């Protein structure tokens, strides 16, 4: 079979972009065997520039940056694009408007996995914007998945660990224990699963070690990307 070519908007952070590249290729090899591997275009940004835009809350600037990346990927031959990070899906509408190929949305992939596994209420852990801005939780809720997030102070703590540690490749036992404690609190509030809605959280707390069922956003997104890559083109009418 001929696979479609995916374009990844990566580098946010590069630690999780490695996971995308490895897991997409592993899934393709497992399904097709032999020497088969994925057709991937990766545009890996300098995350410091994106981080400056986040801190300034310059989302128009972020929109322009990611839209330009999407256009470069399409020009390079990408037949669909995927933003390899949760938070920057805040810019997904701008990317979709800038390209003429599909965008495989990370939130939709999480919703699909939650539905397939029978989860109805997801705790969402990620950056403060992912947890508190509507672009993420409202998209889950529109697909029938209720959401829970920590209180405001805890959201800030989760966010600080992400940017002071995880996106810089630092993974400590103390932060791991704190995240597990927060997951337990959300479980007590009624979550039947947790979405690891920062692509680095699964590196700190692998899903199998979480205190409740967990959906790693990387795993969910990769599953959706691979399904798209391997989908058969519809037959032409009258062919």
From TrEMBL:
<dbReference type="Pfam" id="PF01177">
    <property type="entry name" value="Asp_Glu_race"/>
</dbReference>
<comment type="similarity">
    <text>Belongs to the aspartate/glutamate racemases family.</text>
</comment>
<dbReference type="InterPro" id="IPR015942">
    <property type="entry name" value="Asp/Glu/hydantoin_racemase"/>
</dbReference>
<keyword id="KW-0413">Isomerase</keyword>
<protein>
    <submittedName>
        <fullName>Aspartate racemase</fullName>
        <ecNumber>5.1.1.13</ecNumber>
    </submittedName>
</protein>
<dbReference type="InterPro" id="IPR004380">
    <property type="entry name" value="Asp_race"/>
</dbReference>
<dbReference type="GO" id="GO:0047689">
    <property type="term" value="F:aspartate racemase activity"/>
</dbReference>
<dbReference type="InterPro" id="IPR001920">
    <property type="entry name" value="Asp/Glu_race"/>
</dbReference>
């Amino acid at each position: 079979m001929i696979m479609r070519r995916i374009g990844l908007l990566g580098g946010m952070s590069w630690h999780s972009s490695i996971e995308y590249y490895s897991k997409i290729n592993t899934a393709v090899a497992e399904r097709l065997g032999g020497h088969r591997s994925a057709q991937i275009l990766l545009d890996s940004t300098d995350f410091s520039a994106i981080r400056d835009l986040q801190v300034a809350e310059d989302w128009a600037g972020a929109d322009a940056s990611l839209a330009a990346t999407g256009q470069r990927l399409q020009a390079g031959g990408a037949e669909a694009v995927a933003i390899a990070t949760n938070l920057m899906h805040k810019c997904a509408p701008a990317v979709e408007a800038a390209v003429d190929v599909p965008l495989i949305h990370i939130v939709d992939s999480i919703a699909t996995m939650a539905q397939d596994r029978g989860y109805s209420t997801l705790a969402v852990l990620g950056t403060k914007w992912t947890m508190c801005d509507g672009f993420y939780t409202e998209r889950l809720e529109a697909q029938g998945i209720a959401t829970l997030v920590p209180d405001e102070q805890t959201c800030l703590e989760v966010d600080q660990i992400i940017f002071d540690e995880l996106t810089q490749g630092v993974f400590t036992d103390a932060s791991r224990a704190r995240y597990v404690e927060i997951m337990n609190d959300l479980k007590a509030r009624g979550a039947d699963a947790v979405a690891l809605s920062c692509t680095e959280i699964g590196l700190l707390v692998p899903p199998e070690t979480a205190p409740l069922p967990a959906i790693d956003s990387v795993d969910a997104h990769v599953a959706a990307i691979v399904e798209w890559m391997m989908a058969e083109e519809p037959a032409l009418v009258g062919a």
